[in-house]
Design a protein that fits this description.
10 strands; about 35% strand; single chain; 5-stranded antiparallel β-sheet
């Protein structure tokens, strides 16, 4: 389930196993729940649904690679973590270009061994965040790049 504080306009979501884009949100005071407005990728508006009807889209290697990330692999575990892990290090890199508003920098998504989640890294690991879903990565990239991450389906 998606948490209220994780969802924003332009996030990709699933509703009844179909892909949609969030267009807005409104808290319903009577039931104290968030109502989410969304549309298809073609722009067809759908009726608003309560947040608990919406599911996140799992982040995958395929989505990362289709959407601009470059894949790489290191044999064995290459991690700053003290945890013992077995397997290989998989990583996906994306370069953010400098604009008038932001500096250029590198974003890496890393998966050590058989982790259930990905780790978002800024630069050489100066900032790290565990992520599992597309909307979480969208929410990290947007303020860093100044534009939406273009996800290719």
């Amino acid at each position: 389930m998606i948490q209220e504080n994780e969802l924003r306009r332009s996030n990709y979501i699933l509703y009844l196993n179909e892909l949609y884009v969030v267009t807005g949100m409104k808290e319903e005071s009577a039931v104290r729940r968030l109502r989410v407005y969304f549309q298809t990728l073609n722009g067809e508006l759908k009726n608003a649904k309560l947040l608990n009807w919406i599911t996140p889209i799992p982040l995958t290697s395929e989505i990362l690679q289709k959407s601009g990330f470059k894949y790489g692999k290191v044999d064995g575990i290459s991690s700053f973590s003290d945890e013992e892990r077995e397997g290989d290090t998989h990583y996906w890199d994306l370069s953010i270009k400098r604009t008038d508003l932001i500096d250029s920098h590198e974003i890496s998504i890393v998966k050590w061994g058989e982790q259930e989640y990905f780790t978002f890294q800024l630069g050489r690991g100066t900032y790290r965040q565990q992520i599992k879903y597309v909307h979480q990565l969208q929410n990290l990239i947007y303020p860093l790049a100044g534009v939406e991450w273009e996800v290719v389906w």
